[in-house]
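Kindly go through one protein, given below as sequence and tokens. The question is how this chain folds according to its tokens.

***
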Amino acid sequence: MKKLILATLFLTVIACQKKDQTEKPAVVTDEHTFSKPELAVVKHLDLDIKVDFNTQTISGKASWLIDNISKGNEIIFDENTLNITKVTLGDEEKETKFELGAAVEFHGKPLRITIEPNTTKVNIYYSTSKDAVALQWLTPAQTADKKKPFLFSQGESIWSRTWIPCQDSPGIRFTYNAKVTVPKDLLAVMSAVNPQKKNDTGVYTFKQDKAIPSYLMAIAVGDIEFQSIDNRTGVYAEPSMLKKSAWEFAELGKMVVAAEKLYGPYRWGRYDVLVLPPSFPYGGMENPNLTFLTPGVITGDRSLTSLLAHELGHSWSGNLVTNATWDDIWLNEGFTTYVEHRIGEAIFGKKEAEMQDVLTRKDLDDNIAEYGATNPDTRLKVSLTNRNPDDGISQIPYVKGYNFLKVIEAAVGREKFDPFIKNYFDAHAFQSITTEDFVKYLNDNLIKGDKALADKIKLDDWIYKPGIPSNITAVSSEDFTAIDNIQKNWRTTGVKGLSKKIKSTTEKQHFIDYLPADITSEEMTAIDNEFSFTKNGNFVIKRQWFAQAILHQYKPAYSAIEQFMIATSRTGSLMTLYKELVKTPEGKTWAKQIFDKAKSGYHATTVQAVEGLLK
């Protein structure tokens, strides 16, 4: 991994949480922001911007309402590749001095602005550059309909500072209003209350009255239309994708209701999804009010809609209760993976939940094996000092965090654990907290000094030590056991008819994952003829099948593999295949050839990840 050029960021963020009146507020170190919010902190943003597809820039004014806590003469913002043209103070727009500090790799530069002790408003005039990591500008050819250009943002983890000057830490929350001017034939949407149809002016206004961290600032502009699912859920997509997307997500409203029954009211008003073009680098991004989603989930059979349960789950764990620093990302992703599984169980049933548990355990085992059991990055509480915080967005916080919460659930039972989680969300609603805050809450409200229970949970082993603790819960699935028995016999009995026994995406994934290590090309061909994995598999099935095809040099799939890797920019899935390719000299040569063809359509963070691997 790349190292930071400078390693001098030891800055603080005041954790936004309720404390006893006699207790001093906790101070949290966030080394990935230049801002010093204990001295002066932002509270609200009024954003007035214009989106220009000709120059591929956003320009305008970010007006920040601030709290000058120290009554000092400076406030510090984060910026990265922005062009700052002018800064003024107050409604009277009194011009003031500003300067940019030294650049730090990944982090950009500190924007130091001179203020007065009584300053409450700072106006920053700026424009973005073509190097803005957060912004993906697409030509018409890169969209589904291939008629009009498209723009979308991706702020997590520290990339919002490349399109808005901000105090870019998950521990700093603010509300916002925005006025966005776009070409008249396009629609703009944001992580806020959104319009549902185009107007004839190209000017759209937005309001987010819930305090969010900067990484959840999001914008998309394109030839987008809307279709409702029920009174509070709906889908945005390009015209050719709209009806298919709305059909695919028909159970979205049911998912919201299922989540509410478990964890309390959905607090964000509407829950809509936006289906993006293929260059989106993730399966989904939980932007408040409007989840950004990969088109890979649109299969025509609703086989991958469980991904929505994860993004919906973030409405409680991540958006409502947020990790205060990127070292604490498991609080977002581990909790959300747990919530996702519980929503999935409520919607799809116990058997599907058991299968998902087995798949999640395999993900954990595979990731620990890849990292090494003693690697500190396999802890839940990681250290990203002097590193790109995107390095923390691995599968470890998702799957190890989930299994840790399963251990607690098993130790106390759901009748205690469900109310505990609900109360945890309520107690920390619209706050950013650390792992240590969670540990204290767990000890105070669940363990309560019970040494036997604490020994059963082994909290320190899970959070602060690498590898997999000894008390991990057992997982099993009768459906998968049946498939395991098929695996033992199909070489003798043949593969004909297996597709009638192994039907769901989950079942097929398990079958593919445990194909024999010495499988032959002829056997791969027979399986492919039976299941049509190469041609007709959905996104997940193709990813898993193609990994096996690369491993076993199944050449009939090579053309489809290349097309798949060029057509998507989902970083995690692509890295699965690139990592398999680079294991052989021939594969690494092929990987470089694919990357050369594909990188113009990849998101900047995907390019960064693949380049690091190929080097």
